[in-house]
Amino acid sequence: MLERLNEEIRRRNYVVRIFPNTESCLRLVRALAVETHENWMEAIR
């Protein structure tokens, strides 16, 4: 699961290319982690 999350972060990072600050990068990583968690929780049900 972590490998998939890392690949998704790399893919989205490639699209954005340059982040204006550290917070914007962390915001993207957190959003992907939350999305992955929600998908995982839905799959369990």
Automatic annotation (TrEMBL):
Keywords: DNA recombination, DNA-binding, Transposition. It comes from uncultured Pleomorphomonas sp. The keyword Ligase does not apply. The lineage of its organism: Bacteria, Pseudomonadati, Pseudomonadota, Alphaproteobacteria, Hyphomicrobiales. Required for the transposition of the insertion element. InterPro entries: PH_domain, Transposase_mutator. Belongs to the transposase mutator family. GO terms for biological process: DNA transposition. The keyword DNA-binding applies. This is PH domain-containing protein. One of its GO terms (molecular function) is DNA binding. Residues 1-45 form the PH domain. Pfam families: Transposase_mut.
